[in-house]
Design a protein that fits this description.
By secondary structure, the protein is of the alpha+beta class. The chain has four domains: 122 residues, Beta-Lactamase, CATH 3.30.450; 102 residues, 2-Layer Sandwich (Beta-Lactamase); 74 residues, Helix Hairpins (Orthogonal Bundle), CATH 1.10.287; 121 residues, Heat Shock Protein 90 (2-Layer Sandwich). Helix content is 47%, strand content 24%. It is built from 14 helices and 15 strands. Helix 11 runs parallel beside helix 12. The longest helix has 48 residues. It is rod-shaped and about 175 Å long. The N and C termini lie far apart (123 Å).
Length: 469
């Protein structure tokens, strides 16, 4: 009937209006969400995109209606997304996607999200996609990864601690430089590196600086896991929260041991050169004076004849002058102003000759052992080699006192000749060992030794192209 038809038309109109209103509500909802929402037809062209999508990719509504979905993709994503679209056409939803898109201005936009599909009678009607722009997050992650890689591959030791000093991270360079594996260092404190070279006030100042939010820089001595000391240049930077309170500390530590040792060697060489120049000049003039004194003593001895007291006095002058001349000879050798004749020299006979003289002069309570092997000749002045062996042996004998064992060794090591002098004396501490080759340095009591013996040895050995330890 007419009434029935009118009722049906009214119902249909209401249904269509409700559907339109529902569609508008959803459209309003999608238009105002921060995520990128899109709808793509079976031909791959966009049916709808929301405001966030348009603003992010820079297209107007008119432009979007003319676009195929592949036109807003990064070129490297096109083939992958074609396969995704084919799966959607079979009714297979695609979730957990990460896609690189290309904005209108060429900017790369990275999105994450899901794609679903509406099917009717086994055919695709349209796809629906909701994506979140994660470009900034991905950029931050990439930057973080680059920084992490830089820290991991840094040549400098880097470690991070909690505010209480507990180590939470060390890089491979830390493991290599300190000898502490990551698994053993993490959970401990930097006290594992303390060498004892710095006092408590040093560390108090360090902690006061970084806990106050400032950066600390300094050079000091640390200790490796095996106990050996090493010099470091270190920078400790506090990581602060919004209130300015340190939440952690980042330490960058550079091993400068080689630089410090090189500087010490250079300083030592400069000091040796200065002392050598000064000593050599004085010794040369003094040597000329001694020559005159000894010559006049000879003449005076001939004049006094049988006057016993005068002869004795002159002999004492002569003896003192000869001792002074020997001392001058050592000074001139140290200063390298005493020329020597370098020629192929066999060291074994010299070592045996020194041993023979030592046996006659050392106390019977000191045992002397020889471990001399046949070795090739070396290019050196025989007199200087004799002086090297004798000075080393005398120094060793004086270190032992009245009892002990002295061993002289000679052997060939590859293309070099190795001379060793071992004694059973009390040994040396590290501070003394660092200074033993300095001229005029001695640990002996006054009147025993000149402090030049080992300096002379060092000078001769170095001038021959050798080394001494």
């Amino acid at each position: 009937t007419a009434a029935t038809e009118i009722g049906a038309a009214i119902a249909r109109h209401r249904s269509e209006r409700a559907l339109a209103e529902s569609e508008q509500r959803y459209r309003d909802l999608f238009e105002n969400v921060a995520d990128l929402v899109q709808c793509v037809g079976p031909d791959g062209r966009f049916l709808y995109v929301n405001r966030a999508w348009r603003e992010t990719l820079g297209y107007s509504e008119e432009e979007v209606s003319q676009l195929h979905f592949t036109q807003v993709l990064h070129p490297e994503e096109v083939e992958h997304c074609r396969r995704v679209f084919q799966a959607l056409s079979r009714g297979e939803a695609q979730r957990g996607l990460e896609i690189r898109m290309r904005a209108r201005n060429g900017r790369e936009v990275v999105v994450e999200g899901n794609l679903t599909v509406r099917m009717e009678a086994g055919r695709m009607v349209h796809t629906r996609g909701i994506f979140r722009d994660v470009t900034d997050r991905k950029r931050a992650e990439a930057e973080r990864d680059r920084l992490a890689a830089a820290v991991e591959h840094s040549a400098e030791a880097i470690f991070i601690t909690e505010p209480d000093g507990t180590i939470t991270y060390v890089n491979p360079a830390f493991e290599r430089i300190t000898g502490w594996p990551r698994g053993e260092a993490v959970g401990r404190t930097p006290r594992i590196l303390k060498s004892g070279e710095q006092d408590a006030a040093f560390y108090r100042e360090m902690w006061a600086t970084i806990r106050g939010g400032a950066v600390w820089r300094g050079r000091y001595v640390n200790r490796r896991r095996d106990g050996t000391p090493f010099h470091v240049d270190q920078t400790i930077s506090p990581i602060l929260d919004a209130a300015g309170t340190p939440t952690s500390f980042v330490s960058v530590m550079r091993d400068v041991t080689a630089d410090v040792e090189m500087a010490e060697r250079l300083s030592h060489m400069q000091k040796m050169e200065a002392l050598g120049t000064l000593s050599g000049g004085i010794a040369h003039d003094f040597n000329n004076m001694l020559t005159a004194i000894l010559g006049n003593v000879e003449l005076a001895l001939m004049e006094v004849g049988g006057q016993a007291e005068a002869v004795e006095a002159l002999r004492q002058v002569e003896s003192a002058s000869l001792r002074a001349r020997d001392l001058i000879a050592q000074i001139l050798t140290f200063a390298r102003q005493q020329p020597g004749e370098r020629r192929p020299t066999r060291i074994a006979p010299i070592v045996k000759e020194v041993a023979r003289l030592l046996r006659a002069s050392l106390p019977a309570s000191i045992e002397l052992h020889l471990e001399v092997e046949p070795v090739a000749p070396v290019v050196a002045d025989p007199t200087e080699i004799y002086q090297v062996v004798m000075n080393l042996c005398v120094n060793a004998a004086q270190a032992m006192g009245d009892t002990g064992e002295l061993t002289l060794g000679l052997r060939e090591v590859e293309s070099r000749v190795e001379l060793t002098v071992r004694d059973t004396g009390c040994g040396m501490d590290e501070a003394t060992r660092r200074r033993i080759f300095e001229p005029y340095f001695t640990t002996k009591k006054s009147g025993v030794g000149t402090g030049l013996g080992l300096a002379v040895v060092h000078g001769i050995v170095s001038s021959c192209g050798g080394s001494i330890e």
